[in-house]
Amino acid sequence: LLIKTNKLVCNSSTNFLILIEQHLPISSVMIKNYLKSALRFIKHNKAFAGINLAGLSIALAAAFIILLYVINELSFDTCHKNRHDIYRVLNYYSEFKQTMAGTPFVLASTLKNDFPQVKAATNTRSAMIKLKIGEEDVTIRAIASTSDIFSIFTIPVTQGMRDNILDDPNSIVISREMAEKYFPGNDPVGKEVSGSVNNIETVFIISGVFENLPANSTFRADCLVNNRLTLDPINKSFKVTNADVNWTFDFWNTWILLTEGASPSEIEKQFEDFTKRHISEKPMNSYSLQNLNDVYLRSESVANTGVEGNMKNIRLFSLIAFLIVLVAAINYIILSTAVSVSRSREIGIRKTFGADRRNIKGQLLSESVIITLLVLPVVIILAKISLPLAGRLFQAKLSIIPTNVPLYILSYIGVTLIIGFFSGLYTSSYLSSIKVMDILRNTLRSGKKRQLLRSGLIAVQLIIFCTFVASTLIIRSQYKYALNKETGYYTHGIIMVDMGRDFQGYSAFIGNLRSNPNIIMAAGVMSPLPMTGWMTTMYPSFENPENKVKVEGFAVDYDFISTMGIRLLQGREFSRDFGSDLKKSCIVNETAIKALGIKDPLNQKIGTLNIIGVVKDFNLHSIHTEIPPLSITMTDRYIQQVAIRYKPGTLNSILPVVEAEWKSAAPDRPFRYFTIESL
């Protein structure tokens, strides 16, 4: 990257000087003289050059890191060539007033059959699958889909036949990275691999290898499998046999590719008749289309959308980058005007020998651009060194995406040239306008206008600086407030271990943890606190049954409430002494009692669940959201996280123990943990 950038810097410098030559009456000989003059000026003004080079280097390095983040965020899904015609089907529930990304399995095939504008359609669902490759057991991320996914998204197949590549129920298409890791030097296509999906043993046949998907794709996986593998777990969980044609099981994402020129709004107008025809005359939900370009950055109102970005952060960081660049440019102008008097004799001599104003202006602009271009390689090195630290600040992995390299180079050189050009514009305009007689008479003065401009620039710098300092102090106080805010549960002394789906060694794992003297309690939960997803149910109000109240669900195991320090106000926790707690009991929060209008909550029923306790309100989601009405239920199937409460000061001693227990219980899964404070 550095070598390419250096070449482009040289080319851009030459092109820029050619551009100046086209607008100013200067020859190629004069351009060479300007280069020599610029280097001579830097040599004779080391303090000026040193301060400018250091200031520009730091400012541009910070701006380049921000630009890297912004470009990466804005470039999401640009790797898919048909992105302008790819749409995700969204599911809006009028009763819940909530838009979901989940749709029925049958929706994709039905849309393809009913709408001629739909060129291809598929549904997707993520899954963790176990594979036994040689003597090694591995757990990898998989996306279950159909062969149409290769027609919709740009997923280059490097080995195997692209057509019908996922039609066989046992077919699996692996990534190039996976192929190189587990089948080095061999062609994996056609080989059998034993494995399991949701504890159902399967023999997979590798039907192809696809190129690794870039980091700026919302659609990422280590392998692709047939989507019918996701039906059996749903059928088993809900004790049905028709998940493939059921319109109420919304567990898949539906993607469609429209024909060129097709109008998505015209399709959306027909969705009302579509739902009446296939679901009911009065459906509870309605469908809409979301273009792939909007999925990553414009899904804040869509529940369970998966990987998503934040447009507000992009605007904020772009503004910060602009202000940093502006301060660097102002600093250059102020320093340039400070040394301008020492250059008056040089300019007077040049004018005496025939140089006109345009020649002088071209020379000074060239010097300004050359100085900024000289720091570009240093800036790139500084930015690269600072990437890990900046990544922690951004709370994101800042990586150089190969497909974005041309954008990085163009934006970096563009910003550098803009700073060089506009920073030197004022100084060159002023110095080139100086009259020779004023120089000879030594009557050169700064003038009120020039003083006012310099004072104004300094004032702008101070305003920007004060804004940065004030914003930092505000953010720091908000951060401290968030850390110290009473959330209603323990935020210190808790670690969460991510088990993933369908973890079979849960009971043994958590039992061994509880036997450790430094571990106070341990319990399982479906989603950690603060919860990022939504599980909602509508219940009739006790005061007026015709009014429905949206109540969120939270699935836990025994002892989770005690482990997290959630305060119990009435009744009891879930207990192993009561067999009905697993299926027929719930615990509600204060907000649910008020919203439902329950006077005496204990032993009352909401739906089919008997209320056995009431807990004090706690932040189920982020502290930025209101506390919703909540129903806490038991689960023994969907535990994906384990909360471990440990004695103060023992974290370093229990982590090796927890990791050892994990490797014993799940040798094929990576050990991942995090703290509540980091969420």
Short description:
By secondary structure, this protein is an alpha+beta fold.
What does this entry look like structurally?
The structure is a single chain. With 679 residues, the protein is an alpha+beta fold. It has 22 helices and 23 strands. Strands 15, 16, 17, 18, 19, 20 and 21 form a seven-stranded mixed β-sheet that branches. A six-stranded mixed beta barrel has the order 3-4-9-6-8-7. The model is unreliable at 1-26 (pLDDT under 50).
Distance between the termini: 35 Å
Structural class: alpha+beta
Largest sheet: 7 strands, mixed
Overall morphology:
globular
Mean pLDDT score: 83
Please indicate the percent range of residues in DSSP E strands (runs of 2 or more): 15-25%
- Residue share in helix: 40-55%
Radius of gyration equals 32 Å
What is the number of E strands? 23
